[in-house]
What we know:
The chain is 29% helix and 13% strand. By secondary structure, it is an alpha/beta fold. It has a domain at 6-183: TIM Barrel (Alpha-Beta Barrel).
Amino acid sequence: MPENTVPAFxxxxxxxxxxxxxxVVISADREIVVSHEPWMSHVICSHPDGRPVxxxxxxxxxxxxxxxxxxxxxxxxxRIHKKFPEQQKLKAxxxxxxxxxxxSEKFAKEKGYAIPHYxxxxxxxxxxxxxxxxxxxxxVRMVVDEIRRxxxxxxxxxQSFDVNVLELLNKEEKRKFAISYLVSSGRKLSTxxxxxxxxPEVFSPNYPIASEQMVKxxxxxxxxxxPWTINDQKAMDKLKGWGCDGGITxxxxxxx
Length: 256
């Protein structure tokens, strides 16, 4: 199914996936939009008139500068992602976080599936503050308030690469959500954790930098270890053998 769309999340629930992972960005009219990039992707999206989005249009199609009514006019499902040739062609728009959660909860209850958990990435980079996203204080406030309004805080992990975002999340009073620290490089857990003033509930590295020792070090500190993005069966089996607490993936593996 097209990535980060309601049909994709409902299919995941149907396939007995227990946690839905997604990325969120902010629109000009302050909607929390589920999207991997804070712009219209030239890989999967098309203009309202059907023209494929061009790579050069990233700045012009900045979601942070677009109202949600205009975002909804773009299709991000009919163009097949080259990395996923089995994807179905399906008209699909970028949904809001509210639409995703409400649709997922309703579907699971009506069909008798397990109520899902959520792993929500606040897509934030310092160089993009006030350009492709709001300041961290605003971004964090919006996401935390929304998961509380939706009643899913206790079933939610909020993750980010941005240390400023993570620090603000940790200052939330009486928080019931977990915090996950995303990292893309570095093979020493201690070096990564020194960048934070607190111990996160989850450590989530790019899986090629993971090691069995890193898993053990996390568990010794009471931290869950959930690497990303594992689309290879052999790699998944190896990580599972190390005792990882979960794994972020785009595909369905053999559950055995």
